[in-house]
Amino acid sequence: MAQLLSSPSDLQAARVPRLDKLGIIIAVLVLAAVFFLPFVISRPNRIVAGMALPISGALPALQAIVLYGLIALGSVIGLLRVPSLWRLASSFVVVLSLCLFLGGAANFLTPEGNTVARVSPGAGFWVLVFAFALIAADALVRLRLGPLARIGVLLLVAAAIAAMLWAGVWQNLSILKEYANRGAAFWAEARTHVALAFGSLAVATVIGVPVGILCYRRSSVRAALLPVLNMVQTIPSIALFGLLIAPLAWLAANVPGASAVGISGIGTAPAMIALFAYSLLPIVSNTVIGLDGVDASVKDAARGMGMTDNQVLFGVELPLAFPVILTGIRIVLVQNIGLATIAALIGGGGFGVFVFQGIGQTAMDLVLLGAVPTVALAFVAAVVLDALVELVSPKRVPSA
Amino acid sequence: MTPGAIVRLAILILLLAFLLAPQSFAPVFAPLTRFGAPPIYNQGSLLDITLSHLWITFLATLASTIVAVGLSILVTRPFGKEFLSLSRSLANVGQTFPPVAVLALAVPVLGFGTEPTLIALFLYGLLPIFENALTGLTNVPRDVDEAARGMGMTGWQRLVGVELPLALPVILSGIRVAAVISLATATIGSTVAARTLGEVIIAGLTTSNTAFVLQGGLIVGILAVLLSDALSALERLLARRAGLTRRAEA
Amino acid sequence: MIEIDGLTKTYEATTVVDHVSLTIEKGEICVIVGTSGSGKTTLMRMINRLVEPTAGTVRIDGRDTRDRPAHQLRRQIGYAIQGHGLFPHRTVGQNIGTVPRLLGWEKPRIAARVDELLSLFQLDPALYRDRLPSELSGGQQQRVGVARALAAEPDILLMDEPFGALDPIIRSKAQDDLLAIQKRFGTTIVLVTHDMEEAITLGSKIAVMDKGKLLQYATPAEIIARPATDFVNQLIGTGDRPFRLLSLETVLDHVEPGEAAGDAIDASLSLRDAYAECLWSGRDAIPVEEAGQRIGRVTLSRLTALAARPQ
């Protein structure tokens, strides 16, 4: 396609510095966010309607001017076709300052000693962060970072967020006020959430990989099992949680000792079982796909050299299929981190507790307290596992 | 008719029977209730709730399809090429967001009711459809695209006559994923006051009425499986029509 | 007539085609031959503007190819490629009818043309018209690809390694078919290949390309006899030169009166085949027949003389 773009446009490029198309979209977004959307919402207490404030109303005049200036500078750099590294650095600085000034706005708007007033980020803040994160994402895509470099960027961002939390930059922000009220509960639910997502994954991996090997070797097992797992995967989570309640309740009531080991109709048990059921399909099917994908000539050569079936499996097939199996694990982990939220509806705990409590109390800050860590956890899991998959995959030799 | 199709048809008929005359199934669910609680959901017509659930799913998926396919066409044309790799990674990253989180985050912005659910479903549904449409539109075999240009088809003629028909099965596969996710997430939508089958399950959970939970769960589960099966069958049919299946096997 | 004048294509720093000029007469088969990366395909693709030249012009029958939109130009020029590029979602008939439909032909005319071409390529229209490409064998797909390129009765046919994916037997059959069809319609053909053997079999003129430059543009006999550079020589293969020379002419061209013993060979075969037959059967002369009638003989001494480097 690029070959088709005729030369006249290349000539134009040499004469006039062209604007970046994405930069133009970003600039429009930024203008809209700065002039028409509130930077923060300030409320006298957590559930009443609030007052929408632009940057100029949310910060002392000097700080507001500095922030306006930084946003303008970042937009201009976004508009110009400068090297990706510059764009990455400038957008990173703008996002960082937006975060710092958001905390500043909360401090500025909260009267000394007032614990019921709430200041939360407004749509303008979110759109600005989104716009500059988009420039950063574009720059990252263009830089084609390797897997280790991507994890490095992730660590850098995580460190920046941790530092701001530790320094108390956001202490007057509504979401952290919610956190302050339930710090212990937050960490307990976090542990439950992680235990649900990772525990179900671990069990599913231990069982799913051997089942996958069995499916690979016996097509009759494959034909019988995969459609069932596929069907389970389509059943909506809350329905599956619900469907497990009746049999588990029956077990708890009728099997001696079942309730003693924690099996009951509601709670962690049905959540764990459902998450495990969802995890099986990606792991089993990716194991089968991975093993199927091993080059037939490689298997043939291994057999021809006198390796036994098990030697071929452990020495050749599984190592070669590993990247595909790991991709299955990535799918499951990201999916389970999301689905674990819903466990809260059946008393299974996790971050969903805050989401659904918040919805119930129309306290949006509480919803955020549950949703933001869930999203962050899923995102981190995806980035890390994608990088791992790339690290263990055979390097593709660029074709001539 | 295959045994699988007969089972599906039987389940569909059973589902319809239950939705049209739920009370006649009361004896089946009665053993699950305690202290004389009603065995059949009694806070609204199950049929109405099911139709409302399906309608929300349909609207959201339709809107996602139109917008996502449109966007995918834009970024695969020469003037939109610059956005191709960025939009691809955004669709990729976007799908790490749990659908529930999208719903939860929509509420602070949009409030309660059917609309936020609809918009959250629409936004989330964009991602799989967009990703698949991109895959379909960019994976037209090189020699086919080359031949189409060499014979003097214009960009528009290639899009309508070659690229879209060849991408259709892959796009449909994305629509299936989006529809199944929408159906599932719509269930959660009842926690933000959307009228969906989630309210049956949640009513059961809050009143410890296992019969309600089971009814809601069964209806949603059966709908999801049937919907996914039907769309998969359509996908296979289209792939065969597009001459793709045999080509892949050859 | 195609006049290529100073044609150049540069991608950033690399020059893929470098000031190539050549004229292809009407009704000729011009084979562009070269190794991969020689610029041969790019040169051909600039004729129908699938690649826009950086400099230089292409004129077809005196008319600059840039005086109309590229897609309209392409509809006037047949185009067949390696791997055929058939539309997998359209039937054989619809595939062949693509360009006529783009040109707005009436339906009955398209249908008639499709059937005519299918018959010409020995595919029963009733049997194959409504099949999908995936339901054909590789050789059949390739024939449909060429039929599709010829559908709108173009004066010019561009072919990019059209037989590259075929096995040797089907390949030589396809080459014979192409020659027969070219004779019938008088189409001007520009064909790209990396195979000198194919170039000599098909070409009335051969253009040898290397590193973007046109090294030699001449008849096959000229190229074999007087290769312009070492590279051309290498491409022909010094060990094969006499046999390549013999393959250019048929027995009919050199039959002489007289008798010979043993089985006869057909006059339409190449001198190379006759030479091989002499050596294999240990005869100094073999009888020649045309349509079953003996018309004379060829002798080993005459063949040996013909295989020598022309002076």
UniProtKB/TrEMBL annotation, chain A:
<keyword id="KW-0813">Transport</keyword>
<dbReference type="GO" id="GO:0055085">
    <property type="term" value="P:transmembrane transport"/>
</dbReference>
<feature type="transmembrane region" description="Helical">
    <location>
        <begin position="92"/>
        <end position="111"/>
    </location>
</feature>
<keyword id="KW-0812">Transmembrane</keyword>
<dbReference type="GO" id="GO:0005886">
    <property type="term" value="C:plasma membrane"/>
</dbReference>
<feature type="domain" description="ABC transmembrane type-1">
    <location>
        <begin position="190"/>
        <end position="390"/>
    </location>
</feature>
<feature type="transmembrane region" description="Helical">
    <location>
        <begin position="339"/>
        <end position="359"/>
    </location>
</feature>
<keyword id="KW-0472">Membrane</keyword>
<dbReference type="InterPro" id="IPR000515">
    <property type="entry name" value="MetI-like"/>
</dbReference>
<feature type="transmembrane region" description="Helical">
    <location>
        <begin position="366"/>
        <end position="389"/>
    </location>
</feature>
<dbReference type="InterPro" id="IPR035906">
    <property type="entry name" value="MetI-like_sf"/>
</dbReference>
<feature type="transmembrane region" description="Helical">
    <location>
        <begin position="123"/>
        <end position="141"/>
    </location>
</feature>
<protein>
    <submittedName>
        <fullName>ABC transporter permease</fullName>
    </submittedName>
</protein>
<feature type="transmembrane region" description="Helical">
    <location>
        <begin position="153"/>
        <end position="173"/>
    </location>
</feature>
<feature type="transmembrane region" description="Helical">
    <location>
        <begin position="271"/>
        <end position="291"/>
    </location>
</feature>
Automatic annotation (TrEMBL), chain B:
<dbReference type="GO" id="GO:0005886">
    <property type="term" value="C:plasma membrane"/>
</dbReference>
<feature type="transmembrane region" description="Helical">
    <location>
        <begin position="97"/>
        <end position="127"/>
    </location>
</feature>
<dbReference type="GO" id="GO:0031460">
    <property type="term" value="P:glycine betaine transport"/>
</dbReference>
<keyword id="KW-0812">Transmembrane</keyword>
<dbReference type="InterPro" id="IPR051204">
    <property type="entry name" value="ABC_transp_perm/SBD"/>
</dbReference>
<keyword id="KW-0472">Membrane</keyword>
<feature type="transmembrane region" description="Helical">
    <location>
        <begin position="166"/>
        <end position="188"/>
    </location>
</feature>
<dbReference type="Pfam" id="PF00528">
    <property type="entry name" value="BPD_transp_1"/>
</dbReference>
<comment type="similarity">
    <text>Belongs to the binding-protein-dependent transport system permease family.</text>
</comment>
<feature type="transmembrane region" description="Helical">
    <location>
        <begin position="52"/>
        <end position="76"/>
    </location>
</feature>
<dbReference type="InterPro" id="IPR035906">
    <property type="entry name" value="MetI-like_sf"/>
</dbReference>
<feature type="domain" description="ABC transmembrane type-1">
    <location>
        <begin position="50"/>
        <end position="235"/>
    </location>
</feature>
<keyword id="KW-0813">Transport</keyword>
<dbReference type="InterPro" id="IPR000515">
    <property type="entry name" value="MetI-like"/>
</dbReference>
<keyword id="KW-1133">Transmembrane helix</keyword>
TrEMBL record, chain C:
<dbReference type="InterPro" id="IPR017871">
    <property type="entry name" value="ABC_transporter-like_CS"/>
</dbReference>
<dbReference type="GO" id="GO:0015697">
    <property type="term" value="P:quaternary ammonium group transport"/>
</dbReference>
<keyword id="KW-0067">ATP-binding</keyword>
<dbReference type="GO" id="GO:0005524">
    <property type="term" value="F:ATP binding"/>
</dbReference>
<dbReference type="InterPro" id="IPR003593">
    <property type="entry name" value="AAA+_ATPase"/>
</dbReference>
<comment type="similarity">
    <text>Belongs to the ABC transporter superfamily.</text>
</comment>
<protein>
    <submittedName>
        <fullName>Amino acid ABC transporter ATP-binding protein</fullName>
    </submittedName>
</protein>
<keyword id="KW-0547">Nucleotide-binding</keyword>
<dbReference type="InterPro" id="IPR003439">
    <property type="entry name" value="ABC_transporter-like_ATP-bd"/>
</dbReference>
<dbReference type="GO" id="GO:0016887">
    <property type="term" value="F:ATP hydrolysis activity"/>
</dbReference>
<dbReference type="Pfam" id="PF00005">
    <property type="entry name" value="ABC_tran"/>
</dbReference>
<feature type="domain" description="ABC transporter">
    <location>
        <begin position="2"/>
        <end position="236"/>
    </location>
</feature>
<keyword id="KW-0813">Transport</keyword>
<dbReference type="InterPro" id="IPR027417">
    <property type="entry name" value="P-loop_NTPase"/>
</dbReference>
